[in-house]
Amino acid sequence: MARGPESHDLMLLLGPVSYLDCLVFCVFLAPQLIWHVGFFETVWCVLQALPFFSVKLPVGLMRERYFLPPENQSLFVQKASSFEDFVIRCVRYAFEHVPAKIGRVFFSKEVALPFMQFRLLRHGYFRCPVPWREHREESFHGIWLIKNPEEKPDFVLFYAHGGGFSMGSSYFYLEFLLTWLSELEALGYSNPAIFALEYTLVPDAAFPTQLNEAVRGYEHVLKVVQDPSLVCVSGDSAGATLILSLLLHLGSQEANGIGYGRRLPVPALAVLISPWVTLVSTRHRNTVSDYLDVKQLHQYGMQFAGGKMPEDEPLVSPGCCKDMSLWKRSSPSKGIYITYGTEEVFASEIEAFIGTVQETVVVKSEAAVGGIHAWPVASLFLSSNRLGFFDAPFNVFGYCVCSLMVIMNAGTRCEQGEER
């Protein structure tokens, strides 16, 4: 299906982040860190990072990129640009060494919104080309993005952001979601919409608060679109965990004592980006390429479980569910699509999960060779090729388009990716 010029302009709206963008981001970030974290703690964090940024980062970057022979470089370093490699090394340091309460400010509404507005202005846009609005109810809140707010949407993507349950926000994901909205429009939907769930972060609340919010948010989406066959649920990392937990709840005959109210129908499709399927697993392995750290991840996972339920409870940690009849009841009518990178911490666990459920559930997956965690999200900001830079394209938008063609009964066969 041909892409119209309007949606193409939207998809390539702001281009990759530049060094100027990074500088401006820091300008927006600094006062928020001082306000929310404190001046002395912020300064102390900066001082602790100086040896890394002044010595370890430049030395390691130069050595691994320009002095090691290609066969000794990681697959990610071989394929990434210098800027992409630089940013991922910084994120790796931050994930391992910077407290979550500081990382939380990085992705907050107070920083993300002015930064996006700056990027819009820098590219000649005085307002966002697609209307978006906050939606708040007592039991949940989130963000609606819709082409024409005056009309009923003909397709809704329900999205949950990542961030280890302790950081991240839908506001930080706005550009990513706008890009996805343009893909839905290019596919042929006249009024596509996205509802991004803004769930409560740890330590403000632990499980089951986030699942309660996801269920209420999903129920709200169903009330708006009035047809579960027009709903796709999606998320990355911890957000994908929440989506899997939501699906298991929808498929449960009982609410396992938690009590979420009446049963709701399953959606048409689930698209998961680097899902954290099991909170704590011996299959999680640190890699030289990925920015995640297993020890830190497991700590976040335990905080999310909150001691109220064991970390191997399926609704808390969906990968622990071995009840295939429950997975069958929980599966969306068009199945589950999973995309991940072979170099990410979760790779082995994701592959084990696919192997467990694929005989019962329709699962399609794509493993990007050399890919790291949640690259479809990160690449939108970092890669000069906005559709991904790997030899086997790590492009979740293309995968979602192919799956949605099936939903629309377009009769178009998509041969991208590996079907398992």
From TrEMBL:
Keyword NAD: no
Keywords, alphabetical: Hydrolase, Membrane, Transmembrane, Transmembrane helix
Database matches in Gene3D superfamilies: alpha/beta hydrolase
Protein's UniProt keywords contain Ribosomal protein: no
Pfam families: Say1_Mug180 (PF10340)
Segments crossing the lipid bilayer: 12-31
Protein name per the record: Esterase/lipase
Species of origin: Podospora comata
